[in-house]
Design brief:
The chain is mainly beta and 73 residues long. The protein contains one helix and five strands. The longest helix has 4 residues.
Length: 73
């Protein structure tokens, strides 16, 4: 997993190192603001990216876990 955290954005990718390809990738933009949004693409399943509003979410609420995507996505 690759994780890049800034003051108002989190970007992440789950990478298949053997195949050198991203399996899942996404971002959470505008952390802590009322227009905060999350985007996730399940590339290995061929699914289009989904987007969800996360009004006021901070880093803790927006960080993905292995078993659960960010709240609301």
């Amino acid at each position: 997993m690759s994780l890049n955290c800034g003051s108002t954005i989190i970007k992440f990718q789950l990478i298949d190192t053997a195949g050198r390809a991203a399996l899942v990738k996404g971002s959470v933009d505008r952390l802590g603001r009322s227009d905060c949004t999350a985007k996730i693409a399940n590339i290995y399943r061929g699914k289009a990216a989904t987007e969800q509003a996360l009004a006021g979410a901070g880093h803790r609420e927006a960080t993905p876990s292995p078993n659960q995507p960010p709240k609301g996505v």
